[in-house]
Amino acid sequence: MPLLTFFNFEFRVKNTKHSHLQVKQHKMKTKHLLTLTLGLLLVSSTAFAQYGTGLFYDGKAAKEFSYKKPGKGYAGELPSSFSLKAHTPYAKNQGNYGTCTSWAVAYSAMSTAYAYNMGITNRNIITGIAFCPYFVYNQVKADASCSSGSSIPLSILLLMETGAKRFYSPVIGCGALISDDMINDAGNFRIDDAYILYDEGAGIPADMTAAALTTYMKSKATPDYTDIKAAITFGTPVIFGSFIPASFFAARSSFWEPTYDEKQNPGQAVLDNEGMHQMHAMTIIGYDDNKYGGAFEVMNSWGEAFGNKGFVWVKYADWALFCYEAYALELGGLGDAEMNNVSGCVSGDCDNGYGIYKFASGDRYEGHFSGRNFNGYGIYTWASGEVYAGQWSMNKRQGEGTRYLPNGEYGTCIYDNDKLISGFSNWSYTNGDTYYGALAQDFSRIGFGRYTFSNGSVYEGSWKNNVREGLGRMTYTNGDIYVGEWSDDSPNGVGMLIHTNGKVDAGSWSYGKMMSGQSYGYATDQSLLAVRELSLPEPSALAYASADCTDGDCLYGKGKRVYKGGATYEGEFKDGVEDGFGTMTYGDGTKVKSNWKQGYNFGVARYDYGDGTMALAEFKGGTLNGYVLVMKSGNMVVQYYEDGVYLRQVNPTYSPGTSVMNGDLSNNAPSSGSSIEVPGK
Question: How far out from the chain centre does Cα 118 lie?
Answer without folding.
Answer: 24
